[in-house]
Amino acid sequence: MKKLLQMLLVACVVLVNVQLVSANPEKTIITEGFDLSTIHRLVIVDPQYSPVKDGATKDAVMNMFYKTGASARIYVMPKSDVEKSILKDSNVDLSSLETKKADEVFTSNVGKYADAYMVATIVHNSRVVIFYDVYSAQTNQMVYSYEIVAGSHDEDSLKTYEGLTKNFYRSFEKTVQQQIKDQNKKK
């Protein structure tokens, strides 16, 4: 009987540890008073990313953010679409400007083409951490922030980034749905 209890205790400890290790720690920050359900078009801007040795290129990461967003309930578009629209409408080629000036022109014009834009920051530590910051295209204020940490056994690869990005889109959609429910309760 004593041996059976010891085995059950060990099994419980192992199960709890497996659940804790496999769960990706995440944190969400929402700007109070901003209605996330007003975001229908989201621009994916170039991520803050420095490739590790033999890691994915910045273009591959950017493409992954865009493709992963295709399954989201909002229209996701790359920054290049907005840059083309700015060139067409304002006759300003952002690629010919200095970075700081190009950012100023982008942020002052992005509201004409989208509701928000997302900047991702990928950090390579002992574990991969990705910060997803969503800014209102009208005010350039951060309205939603999501941080997720990869599992300790996840490798620093495009596949890991894709899994974490899917979690971001799911979390964003859940947050929007929760806001809608909360607004309906107040009515």
TrEMBL record:
<keyword id="KW-0732">Signal</keyword>
<feature type="signal peptide">
    <location>
        <begin position="1"/>
        <end position="23"/>
    </location>
</feature>
<protein>
    <recommendedName>
        <fullName>Coenzyme F(420) biosynthesis enzyme</fullName>
    </recommendedName>
</protein>
